Structures are given as structure tokens and as C-alpha cells.
Amino acid sequence: MPESKGRAKPAYTPPRTAQANATKPNPRWFVPVMLGLMLIGLVWVVTYYISGTKEYPLPQIGRWNLGAGFAFMMAGFLMTTRWR
Asked: Is the separation of the CB atoms in 53 and 25 below 8 Å?
């Protein structure tokens, strides 16, 4: 009985290293902006609560001052997810 020819297997090549996906460090302005947004939001909300009926910092928007303050804080917290 004749023997079958074996298939030629290619030589093993190791997988490529993912240098294209290497994480780059954040720019120098990233951390100060992140912390600044969180502090601005905190000061905004505290100022609104302390002012009571005077409705500082922006009297035109009324209770939306809380939303503005929390928006600043959330922007800062969302930046923490990209911090390296």
C-alpha cells in the first residue's frame, strides 16, 4: 500500500506584539483639568446651598445651578476613567 505524502507545515511564527495599542501617557494638562472640574463643581454646589434664597452663582437658572455643578463634577469623574 502506498504511503500518503505529509503536508508541509509552515514554520512557527510568534504572534506580533501589540505596539500600536501601547498606552500613551496623558498630557500634562490632563490631571489639573480633571481636578479643576471636580473642584469647580463642588464649589458651585456648595455656593448654591450656602447662598440659600439668593440663588448664587447664577440666579437666572435657579435650581439648575445644582445640575450645572454636578455636570462639572461628572465631567471630572469621567476624565478619571481615561487617566493613566
From this structure: no
- In 3D space, the residue among 44, 78, 39, 77 whose CA is nearest the CA of residue 63 turns out to be 44
Q: Which three cell numbers stand for residue 40?
A: 469647580
76's CB contacts (< 8 A; 6+ apart) are: 34, 35, 36, 37, 38, 39, 41
Digit-by-digit pLDDT tens for the chain (84 residues) are 777 777 777 888 888 876 655 678 999 999 999 999 999 999 999 999 999 867 788 888 888 999 999 999 999 999 999 988
Q: Residue 26 carries which DSSP code?
A: P
- The model's pTM is 0.69
In sequence order, which residues have a C-beta less than 8 Å from that of residue 79 and are 6 or more positions away?
Answer: 30, 33, 34, 37
Domain ranges of the chain: 30-80
